[in-house]
Q: What sequence folds into this?
């Protein structure tokens, strides 16, 4: 008889993914439809020729800024919602028992959820954004005719507007990973609880840093040295890796009751 | 096959341990009854055995592997039937397709046979969540047995079952027993499992009072239902009934009786001295 690895076996991993998809397939489809609907509405609203929320003089600029804004913040919000569902199968005693007693390794179970909630949701958002932008172009063309500067931007076109792709994807990674870690701490209502905690920490951080700055530095001092910028670029990725590893170990140490 | 070594466990914010320095060695297959009052730690012990809780000290070895590591090769040989089930909103066939691939010895024929024993072989067209609690429990137990794992842990399995269901449960467990399978049934409804056990373990507040095979118990104790005043007066314990009393007397070899778990439980929890002198003296 063939001996299977006790850490990772592709057959078992495929069984885990298949089981997760069978269990929640319909719910994920509905969530994807909701994502498409909301992204389409936001794109049409923000790039509508009658309004100019981003304060640009020409339509091409308005389109550029608005699509970038929605891609960045909409994407972060949807991906954060997806990441918050990483531990959705651990929200009750019965679900925890089903998940923990399932004969697969902890790594296989975790990666199966990761594939669906992190990779799957990100890919779904990119597809939804592509479709939503096409609908936007079609709608505005239909309603206003050929406006100067109207064009299809899509998920790949929008990256051109980002000052740094590294910043853009680092931002996504960090937001997703933080919410993934939050879901291992609070499996129930993970999104709201993590969001609340982040807001609270940011407010405290802002008050403290402003206080420290005003105490020790000239109030006019605002120049950011180069080395801080380099660190700022790498911090989101390092933070994301830290969050995902911590989330894995929290899942690995999970028990039938949430003791920690 | 299953070895519990000096297991201790306590829940947070509770001073007393639920399980304290608990040891048990089950060398061969059979049906084991784990009895005890509410709060004695029966369910906790089952969770510790299956690796769902981390002990404060000690360990549980199943086929020489620590169950807390939750290795796939251990998990595919253990099945736990909890008291309260959470089943997905899918039909039985989908449930089998989702879960059976994880259990190498799963048998669809066995499942059909067990479903027929419980008279729930006509539920295929319904979603599992639309079944009654008793039906869900029957279906889940059928699936659990059809996985043919070497260790089957059942927590209050007869809760929610109707009267024919309880009789079917006894038949179904008795027919599934084998030398290479350990079935541990934790319950306080002792009458439901009266005649199917090979071995009895009685727990009381984090410790083991009695841990003996049924044959050893009946060799040493006789369980009688009598109105004989002299027998009642000399009994180790007597539970009065209508007319007759249910009693336990020391067996000098002249009785061949069946165990009455309810009376045995009463004896173990109220007369520890008797249990210790009869069963635990040579172990101490």
A:
């Amino acid at each position: 008889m063939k001996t299977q690895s006790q850490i990772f076996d592709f057959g078992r991993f495929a069984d885990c993914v298949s089981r997760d998809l069978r269990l929640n397939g319909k719910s994920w489809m509905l969530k994807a439809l909701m994502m498409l609907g909301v992204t389409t509405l936001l794109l049409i609203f923000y790039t509508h020729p009658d309004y100019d929320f981003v304060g640009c003089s020409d339509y091409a600029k308005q389109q550029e800024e608005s699509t970038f804004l929605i891609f960045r913040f909409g994407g972060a919000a949807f991906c954060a919602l997806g990441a918050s569902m990483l531990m959705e199968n651990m929200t009750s005693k019965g679900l925890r028992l089903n998940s923990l007693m399932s004969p697969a390794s902890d790594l296989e179970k975790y990666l199966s959820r990761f594939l669906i909630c992190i990779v799957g949701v990100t890919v779904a958002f990119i597809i939804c954004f592509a479709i939503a932008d096409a609908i936007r172009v079609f709608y505005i063309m239909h309603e206003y005719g050929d406006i100067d500067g109207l064009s299809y931007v899509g998920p790949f076109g929008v990256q051109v507007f980002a000052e740094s792709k590294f910043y853009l994807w680092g931002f996504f990674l960090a937001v997703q990973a933080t919410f993934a870690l939050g879901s291992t701490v609070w499996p129930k209502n993970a999104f709201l609880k993590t969001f609340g905690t982040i807001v609270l920490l940011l407010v405290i951080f802002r008050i403290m840093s402003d206080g420290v700055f005003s105490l020790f530095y000239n109030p006019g001092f605002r120049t950011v040295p180069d080395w801080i910028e380099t660190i700022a670029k790498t911090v989101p990725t390092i933070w994301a890796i830290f969050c995902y590893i911590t989330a894995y170990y929290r899942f690995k140490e999970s028990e039938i009751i949430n003791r920690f | 096959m299953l070895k519990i070594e000096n297991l201790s466990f306590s829940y947070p914010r509770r001073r007393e341990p639920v399980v304290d320095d608990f040891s048990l060695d089950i060398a061969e297959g059979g049906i084991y009854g784990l009895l005890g009052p509410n709060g004695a730690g029966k369910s906790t012990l089952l969770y510790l055995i299956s690796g769902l809780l981390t002990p404060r000290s000690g360990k549980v070895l199943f086929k020489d592997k620590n169950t807390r590591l939750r290795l796939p090769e251990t998990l595919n040989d253990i099945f736990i039937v909890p008291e309260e089930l959470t089943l997905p909103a899918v039909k039985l066939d989908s449930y089998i397709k989702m879960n059976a691939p994880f259990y190498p010895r799963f048998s669809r024929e066995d499942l059909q046979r067990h479903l027929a024993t419980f008279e729930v072989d006509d539920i295929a067209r319904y979603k599992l969540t639309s079944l009654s609690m008793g039906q869900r429990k029957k279906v889940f137990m059928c699936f659990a047995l059809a996985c043919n794992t070497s260790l089957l842990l059942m927590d209050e399995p007869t809760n929610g079952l109707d009267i024919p269901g309880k009789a079917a449960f006894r038949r179904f467990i008795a027919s599934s027993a084998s030398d290479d399978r350990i079935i541990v049934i934790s319950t306080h409804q002792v009458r439901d499992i009266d005649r199917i056990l090979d071995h009895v373990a009685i727990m009381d507040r984090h410790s083991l009072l009695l841990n003996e095979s049924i044959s050893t118990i009946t060799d040493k104790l006789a369980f009688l239902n009598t109105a004989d005043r002299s027998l009642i007066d000399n009994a180790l314990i007597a539970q009065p009934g209508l007319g007759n009393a249910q009693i336990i007397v020391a067996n000098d070899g002249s009785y061949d009786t069946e165990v009455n778990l309810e009376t045995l439980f009463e004896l173990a929890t109220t007369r520890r001295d008797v249990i210790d002198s009869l069963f635990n003296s040579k172990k101490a």
